[in-house]
Amino acid sequence: MFVTEKMYRVYLFLPKEDLTSFWNAVGRFGGLHPEGVQRIEDLRDRLSFVDLSSLLSRLREAASVLKVDLEGPLSDPRASPLPPDELATRLEPLEKELAKAREKERSLQERRRTLERELEHLRIQEAHLRLLSPLEVDIGDLLKLRRFAVLAGTMPDYRFQALERSLHRYPHLLLPYRRHRHRVQLLVVCLREHLDEVRKALEAALFRPLELPEELHGKPQEALLLLEERRKELRKRLEVLREEEARFEEWRRARAEELG
Question: Which of 31, 125, 223, 258 could join 216 in a cystine, given CB atoms 3.0 to 4.6 angstroms apart?
Fold first, then answer.
């Protein structure tokens, strides 16, 4: 007795060089009844192809700019995704706008990093100048010495005598100006031709150099006032940047809501 089964007509498109392996696979399967083979030389003119990998990459880039979560919708079986060709059509006019937004975001991030680096550098300079504040010397004059090099820093108090002994071969001057919590703050003066050797001896003595800001001048207290003015200027620039970032985030949220 024969049992009838419902049959479906299926159209298969494949490269002609794969025909042999295709028929071998069909023969093993045994459930396909071929009706005929037709060659289509101009297949790309008859069908619309969408590169899904490229489309998904473009979609993820757009979602990244707008900070939209794609993982939920992509894994939600109740979601009704757009057909690929329609999605590509909707993405195309957005991509120029989103590219400009990406550049704007990068610019804001770079400006913030620059300002934060400058503020951190300023904080370090202020800390160093406060350590130098007991000195009644002009910082600019120290840095302008041609024959002599001047280094400022701190080191463990117990290494001070050992440092003096290690520097006995080189003309030098050690000027301790403050002792605090088992550390000594000092100025080291030496001939510039001996600077490398002196630095090695200082490193062995656990000497921590303090940066002397080359652009500053006057006594440490006067230089601190200049740095405070610089800090106020940087804070104003940071406040302007925060306002720009807030406007950008507002645009991002509004644009994401418009696109659904």
Answer: 223
